[in-house]
Amino acid sequence: MARGSVKARPLKDGTVRYRVKWEDRGPDGARRHHSATRPTKKAADALLAQKLAEVDRGDFVARSKESVGAFLDRWLVAASPGWRGATELAYRSIVRKRIAPRLGEVPLARLDAAAIQGLYAELLAAGYAAKSVQLTHTVLHGALARAVTWRLIPRNPADGALLPRRERPVPVAWTAEEATRFLAATVDDDEHPLWRVMLDTGMRIGEGLALGWGDVDLANGVVTVHRTLTRTRGGEWVVGDSAKTASGRRSVPIGGATVAALRRHRARQAERRLLAGGAWHDRGIVFDRGDGRPHDPTTVGSRFARAVSAAGVARLTPHGLRHTTATLLLGASVHPKIVQERLGHKSIRETMDLYSHVLPTMQGEAATAMEELLGGGARPRRGHGG
User: Fold this and answer.
1) 155 part of a folded domain
2) Rounded Cα distance, 300 and 195, in Å
3) pTM of the prediction?
4) Neighbours of 255 (CB within 10 A)
5) Using CA atoms, how far apart are residues 349 and 328, in angstroms rounded to an integer?
6) What does the pLDDT look like over 86-132, one tens digit per residue?
7) CA–CA dist 264, 155 (Å, integer)
8) How many CB atoms sit inside 10 A of residue 192's CB?
9) Are residues 41 and 90 in the same domain?
């Protein structure tokens, strides 16, 4: 059983305070002594009973003198070995740029829900999107959950935080005419085969840049998506061992024009490989950066932006090519299940929720189709009914 005591402490002004003392054992088994004061004997006895019960149950938490910033640094070191390199880089950036500047000096033991809610309000006022604030909450809540596990704080102060509602934006996509114009304008560019593959298949940029020649069956016109580009802890881009999600593993048929573009690209790549000689890095990647190694998506994004501007089409990010694929297919009345599988979405509901803006057009086409199937119907006879 835990031990403790309550002793009266007369003060110079004649009042009496009551000092509460109790002890527990730390993780190493050593005794730790704790104390607090209360203005009345009744309050002191209640505090002692509470603390002794917590010690006996094993859920007593010693008040931490550590700051939020120091704890987060320690948490990153302890938790990061289980993360992917890209996850670690992202989490460290969120802690460094969003959380530490605002909460880093706050004592961990005094961090409360109001301070955390204030952090989220400051981020929104600074121009951060709702999605960014939600991700910040994910990181902070996860770190504080570990603090509870480490018995540094009794409960997670981020529980129940009010998060900004994230409105899902309507995906920006090209029309068929714009997509055709862009492909025609970039036909001589080194990245043209990548743009065509992405438009044809609906791949994410990371999936396209991770594509290997072993994933491409030109004879049968099929590409297999099962990996994505990822970042190491050192910041280097490498081909990962798996797709972004389990549903992201898929085989996608491609059109004849895309097959032809890939054949030409493979021939040009073979020439570059011969010229590079020993400087070539044989990774088997379809879309390399010039020496066989993976592209940096940021560099590819910049080249895409310049190509879009030169083509005179609506501004779009590389991910917009994926939205264009889905929008054009659904607009052409391709079954949503086929579109879902082509894009690698987890469910057909995800596909339809994301591209619900296409539904009115599809509904109109459905009504026209039924009219054609059923004809105009029999005309009502005159003289009967109202």
Assistant:
1) no
2) 10
3) 0.67
4) 13
5) 18
6) 889 999 999 999 999 999 999 999 999 999 999 999 999 999 999 99
7) 61
8) 19
9) no
